[in-house]
Amino acid sequence: MKSEYDLSKMKSRKNPYSIKLKKPVSMRLSEDVVIYFKGMANESGLPYQSLINLYLRDCVMQHRKVRIAWPSKS
Q: Which of 1, 12, 39, 70 lies 20 to 30 Å (CA to CA) from residue 31?
């Protein structure tokens, strides 16, 4: 580093992009779900993990709730 750059007096600040950082997680997804998103990824030119993230983000933004209806036993 050049001597004219004295960074010792600089104040640190919070990363403004830290909110947008992604957290790595491990998930078990059904093979058909992965194939579906990989197919969409090939069509759109985006990575399939990004498409899954976009879909889940849309669910968050729309406040979608999961509705599970188990078939009744006869």
A: 70
